Amino acid sequence: MDSSKSEDANILHVFWNEGMLNHDLGTGLFDTLEDPGFLEVLEKHPENADRIRNMLSILRKGPIAPYIQWHTGRAAYLSELYSFHTPEYVDMLAKASTAGGKTLCHGTRLNPGSWEAALLAAGTTLEAMHYILDGHGKLSYALVRPPGHHAQPTQADGYCFLNNAGLAVQLAVESGCKRVAVVDIDVHYGNGTAEGFYERDDVLTISLHMNHGSWGPSHLQTGLHDEVGRGKGLGFNLNVPLPNGTGDKGYEHAMHELVVPAISKFMPEMILLVIGQDSSAFDPNGRECLTMEGYRKIGQIMRQQADQFSGGRLLVVQEGGYHITYAAYCLHATLEGVLSLPHPLLSDPLAYYPEYDMYSERVTFIKNYWQGLISTTDKSN
Ligand SMILES: [Zn+2]
């Protein structure tokens, strides 16, 4: 990269480390980690290294490449994990790794190489946040796996061991940011991040997700609109559960009607955009039907929020996204939006999914609920 590019404010700093490819959940019946023996061809576990290889590839070879500066991530120190996870939980994971692995919950197994990859994901996300906090850049993207947003302070869940975004939020707070906002657009509820900050009023957690509800002992949270934080944190967790098939227009509506007003009221000094391409129209794990256009628009809106409130500082953190082709394309589109580029760089090879506009009506219901809550908590303060 020549020096003129590094002086350009509109550069995306991508943090990555090859070691994260060594986490391997093998093949099985979808994400069960098991083979009942009925099929001749089994697919890889959805959270596989190939999906990330394609994301890496499209950022290196796609038309967004000139806007990217690459940085090598690192492993987190165990002591860094204690800002979000309990020492007992971290110790359990480390011991499970030493013992050769452990299945922690449905679809989520620590195999040889997994713990090292998880530490790299956490440390790489922390580096990406450090880069912004130290004033070296304003836009960072942590291209990481295993994902993190389901990992709770004491519980692995949904392919996640360590909460990469949650650790970065804590770093920002400990570095002096008085208010940090997290907007999670992975198709699943960012329950781990919400749980970690559920009683905090200095971290606003927002999650847009498909209305999947609780899914067992590792994921007790419902993700419904009435999970709004507790105690001091009441009114600082905004859940936007959306019907299957919500699509680009429904998501844009939710962003404008719910996310933007919540951020404007909170006035964050740092913003995280937690992304999962499993909200796309072709993902095996989700049914929200976003296309590249919808992802691009969300990226643009979040960049506008960062420009308005956090001095342009925005950390993007990778979560799910399991269609190994379309996830990469949707990532490219999201980051085009984050870079606020005036025209799309890459056309959508798959967008033919018809949208049903009525799905945006759900947003109005959540908005009415949320506004009622906010006015009540404002009066009590
Ligand atoms: Zn997901």
From TrEMBL:
GO terms for molecular function: histone deacetylase activity; hydrolase activity; metal ion binding. Coiled coil: none annotated. Transmembrane segments: none annotated. Gene3D superfamilies: Histone deacetylase domain. The keyword Metal-binding applies. Residues 45-336 form the Histone deacetylase domain. GO terms for biological process: epigenetic regulation of gene expression. Pfam families: Hist_deacetyl (PF00850). Keywords: Hydrolase, Metal-binding, Zinc. Its cofactor is Zn(2+). CDD domains: HDAC_classII_1. Belongs to the histone deacetylase family. This is Histone deacetylase domain-containing protein. It comes from Picea sitchensis (Sitka spruce).
